[in-house]
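Thread: quick sanity check before group meeting

JM: Hey all, I'm pulling together slides for Thursday and realized we never actually wrote out the predicted structure for the chain we discussed last week. Dropping the sequence here so it's in one place. If anyone has concerns about the input, flag it before I start.
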Amino acid sequence: MNSDVFEISVKGFLLRYRVCPGVYPPSEDTFLLLESVVPGKKVLEIGCGSGILSVFCAKFGSGVMSVDINPLSLDCAEMNARLNSVVLGTQLSDIFENVEGKYDTIIFNPPYLPSEDDIEGSEQWNGGKDGFKVTQRFLDSLGSHLTAHGESWIILSSLTDIQSLIRTNPDFSFEVGGSATFFMETLYSYKIILK
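JM (edit): ok, ran it. Output follows.
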């Protein structure tokens, strides 16, 4: 376990976190979501990784459920919650598989890089041939877990055909919340609401 404690200030909240082996660490995409999201009363984070987004929402006053397919991520999220004196609910789940109920805010930083590699550990970044393999599974079930006025936040990459994804999902409105450019890629945070 990495014992170094990192700190970041977001919207007036000081967040402390540790990076955990085998868990997706807070990265540029995470920080973009942190700057974009304004959490509602009841929050669900899919693929919570280190839990830093969940911790931010809990500090904001939201009730938070953090889910991930990786049990190490849930342990890491719980540790980072304790480090920030907040409480999270955690659940092992492949996207919405073990999720019940509706949420005001649903956050997901999906694997979004287009790739046909199938190597061990690639599930953290491999979005399949078009980059939307996991994102589309998420969108297929999103509507049944959002409250009437709820919103979802995801990360999408300029390396994918974002307009194609939007056209394929006409039940949702997509609005860019923020962006950040790195080398040959621009990352976008998108707010998604039911039409």
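AS: nice. Helices lie at 28-36, 52-59, 71-83, 133-142, 162-168. The chain has one domain: 6-194.
JM: adding both to the slides.
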